[in-house]
Design a protein that fits this description.
This protein is an alpha+beta fold. It has 5 domains: 17-182, Serine Threonine Protein Phosphatase 5, Tetratricopeptide repeat (Alpha Horseshoe), CATH 1.25.40; 200-283, Tetratricopeptide repeat domain (Serine Threonine Protein Phosphatase 5, Tetratricopeptide repeat, Alpha Horseshoe); 287-414; 430-502, no CATH class; 609-718, no CATH class. 49% of the residues lie in helices and 6% in strands. The protein contains 29 helices and 6 strands. The protein has helices spanning 26-37, 41-55, 59-71, 75-88, 93-102, 107-120, 130-143, 147-160, 165-175, 182-185, 200-212, 215-228, 233-245, 250-261, 267-283, 300-309, 384-395, 413-418, 430-448, 462-466, 472-487, 496-502, 535-548, 551-563, 573-578, 587-603, 609-621, 625-638, 645-655; strands spanning 287-296, 313-315, 333-338, 357-364, 373-378, 402-412. It has a 6-stranded antiparallel β-sheet. A hairpin with an 8-residue loop joins strand 4 (357-364) and strand 5 (373-378). The longest helix is centred in the middle third of the chain and has 19 residues, at 430-448. 39% of the residues are buried.
Length: 718
């Protein structure tokens, strides 16, 4: 649609053309926008340059020319245009957005440009270029490891570009990724000022800027206020929060200043110290290098024979190495070395019997310019002696000289010390592996963690700090970070055993009575006594925990919901039942939950197809192939055309070994599997009498639209 005088001026001021720099050339702006709508960018640029000669340096013309340059990929010209733009309008939000979008500077400088854009924008008018500029900034920040600033600016993109499916999905993917710490994803709103504070008006202005994403400008205001209100906890807290939004190292001390100003034993103080540690680890991670040892060998065939014959070496049958680079051929074979002889059966294996992997061994044949060699990659930071001893005992004199020692990757010191690399026999029951893993984790945290010297503890151990009242908060904060991270994956995770051993206060359930749960932090949700929650509180907390994938809290709340007769309204009860499947120890219990999920879906006028799909493997594992066949036929007959069902259905059949990747029945003639598709036939249960689609060819599921379809246009600010 062409511009008129009551449209916003292209300069991005937030004023209408009639009252802004474009008022003298409103007709020309209309012609320019029409041309750019028709992708006539070259003609538009020529017209703009002519108008600049005739009317002088008008911001609206620089804004339109910048958009045309960027849209056509003329980034050097765009940068020159922006330099000229900022000379005449140094406080123009559109100009700063353009600088952020086209800058080749370091990410922290690009962040400053984006912050300038948001500072000079208005709540009513954020420049169109701000969205792609922020999207590019987010990628840059994550690439350099500034996860705090990356996440905060990602939330900003999702808020500004509300109609962008791409922005929304990226935000959800981040929030639901358990690899990101819960504290990183939790909301950090600025606290309200006391009603009688003399500085409340200026603070309110800072909050307005912060809500728009102009955190640097807001930070300047709050820091100035603190000079006249030293020790004010609201200001200290806000400074820490704003520094965290920006991922700045100054946030480390800011959080500790805030923690020192409040009750150091409180949950708020412990969370503050946790943020300080996470910001410090972001810029100065406590990591060390894993080493690779390379040995030359004369007789690689004999070395491989010795490894195959050894009870302390397990050959990986199909490691999946590619062979795309003729100058760097893949390893001939791959072995896992263990600290003790591997077991023939794991049916009744105990913790003490389990062999532990000490290294991975790669065997390379002779190359034109290089002798045959083996590369020993250590499993742990301090595992060189154990790994080389095992390799030497197996290979003896056939192991040649040590040719090279190199660092291949860095791993966190804490994660490495607590890692466990068991090599279970193939027949080890799944339930037993899980039990042993949980037991080992508890033992590791209780016995190993207290003795580790960590950077977060200034090179001291948790045992030492726990005896120091002024420093034990560091241990409590580290445990909080670890525990909440574990709880996002494992609903059973609990580190109170460590707190008990160290003489620290254990985390007890919190009474939610008369508490406004919307005001509490996310990390505390797992501690609230769900039996005392109202129905509305259960629904609120459940939905909130789903967004951040807080498994411990999800499970506790879901159990309480299904136990009550009064179920929350506007909640997907089928998903509530489904969220508990992993908590049940038998297939019969899981099937019972799925039956309830199916009924809940039907009661809500939803398709039960996804629950039918989840029921099929449970029926097969229970030996009930007839019911499994009936379920498959039901899906084929009644649900196959529903969105996503065809794709999931045939994927399930492949995983079960019922059909081949090309859709033919397993056991028949099949087309070769495509790269990236794992052929499940070797390990999957046999189809037996289970129904198959026969000769029917599975149709490809519809592909989602390309990301580019969702990108905001650059040609005109609306």
């Amino acid at each position: 649609m062409a511009a008129d005088t009551y449209d916003y001026c292209p300069c991005g001021s937030g004023n209408k053309i009639k009252f802004c720099c474009g008022k003298e050339i409103s007709k020309e702006i209309e012609n320019l926008t029409t041309a750019m709508q028709g992708e006539q960018y070259i003609a538009a640029i020529k017209s703009i340059e002519q108008l600049l000669d005739e009317h002088g340096p008008l911001p609206c013309l620089y804004a339109l020319r910048g958009i045309a340059f960027i849209t056509t990929g003329q980034f050097e010209a765009a940068r020159e245009n922006i330099d000229q733009f900022l000379k005449i309008a140094p406080e123009n939000a559109t100009a700063w957005a353009g600088r952020a979008l086209t800058s080749e500077d370091e990410p922290h400088k690009v962040m400053e440009y984006a912050q300038k854009c948001l500072e000079y924008a208005t709540d009513e008018m954020i420049p169109q270029l701000a969205v792609p500029a922020l999207q590019g900034l987010v990628d840059k920040l994550f690439a350099v490891g500034n996860a705090f600033a990356g996440f905060s600016h990602l939330t900003l993109v999702a808020a500004i570009a509300r109609n962008s499916q791409q922005a929304t999905m990226k935000m959800l993917q981040f929030m639901q990724n358990p690899d990101y710490p819960l504290l990183l994803k939790q909301r950090l709103p600025m606290p309200a000022a006391p009603e009688d504070a003399a500085w409340s008006e200026a603070y309110d202005n800072a909050q307005v800027l912060a809500r728009r994403g102009a955190w640097m400008a807001a930070l300047d205001i709050v820091e100035d206020l603190l000079e006249d209100a030293a020790g004010e906890t609201v200001l200290l807290h806000s400074i820490a929060i704003l520094n965290t939004y920006l991922g700045l190292e100054e946030g480390i001390q800011a959080w500790r200043d805030y923690a020192a100003a409040i009750d150091t034993g409180s949950d708020a103080a412990i969370e503050a110290e946790a943020y300080a540690q996470m910001l410090n680890n972001q810029s100065n991670p406590d990591v060390q290098a894993i080493q690779k040892l390379t040995y030359t060998v004369d007789n690689l065939d004999l070395v491989q024979e010795l490894l195959v014959a050894s009870s302390q070496a397990r050959m990986v049958p199909d490691p999946g190495f590619g062979n795309d680079d003729p100058d760097n051929p893949p390893p001939r074979s791959l072995f896992v070395l263990t600290d003790k002889a591997q077991l023939e059966t794991g049916v009744d294996v105990t913790m003490e019997q389990i062999p532990i992997a000490v290294a991975t061994l790669y065997l390379f044949g002779k190359q034109t310019d290089r002798d045959a060699r083996v590369e020993l990659v250590l499993a742990n930071l301090d595992g060189e002696d154990a790994a080389t001893s095992v390799l030497q005992n197996i290979c003896g004199d056939e192991l040649g000289k040590l040719e090279d020692t190199s660092d291949i990757t860095e791993v966190p010191v804490l994660a490495d010390a607590l890692s466990w690399n068991p090599v279970f026999p193939e027949d080890t029951p799944q339930e037993l592996m899980q039990q042993l893993s949980l037991a080992q984790r508890e033992d590791g945290f209780r016995d190993i963690f207290p003795t580790l010297k960590l950077q977060a503890f200034d090179g001291r151990t948790a045992e030492e700090l726990a005896l120091d009242f002024n420093h034990r908060i560091k241990v409590q904060a580290t445990l909080l970070i670890i525990e909440t991270n574990l709880q996002c994956r494992d609903y059973q995770a609990d580190l109170n055993c460590v707190r008990e051993k160290l003489g620290l206060v254990q985390l007890e359930p919190i009474d939610p009575t008369d508490v406004e749960l919307s005001q509490i932090t996310d990390v505390q949700l797992g501690r609230y006594d769900v039996t005392k929650m109202s129905t509305d509180q259960l629904a609120h907390c459940y939905q909130r925990c789903l967004v951040i994938t807080f498994r411990k809290a999800i499970v506790a709340i879901a159990e309480e919901i299904i136990a009550r007769d009064d179920k929350p309204q506007h909640l997907n009860l089928a998903d509530v039942y489904g969220s508990l499947l992993e908590t049940r120890s038998t297939n019969e219990e899981r099937v019972e939950l799925i039956e309830k999920a199916k009924q809940a879906a039907l009661d809500a006028n939803q398709s039960p197809a996804i629950w039918l799909l989840r029921e099929i493997p449970l029926r097969i594992m229970s030996g009930d192939t007839q019911t499994a066949s009936d379920l498959m036929q039901t899906i084929e007959a009644n649900h196959i055309e529903e969105p996503g069902i065809r794709e999931h259905f045939y994927q399930l059949l492949m995983q079960l070994g019922i059909i081949n990747p090309d859709g033919s029945p397993a056991g028949g003639t099949a087309a070769p599997a495509q790269p990236g598709i794992i052929d499940p036939s070797a390990s999957a249960p046999q189809a037996g009498g289970v129904w198959t689609p026969g000769s029917q060819e599975p149709q490809a599921a519809d592909e989602p639209s390309a990301a580019g379809d969702d990108k905001p246009g650059l040609w005109i600010p609306d």
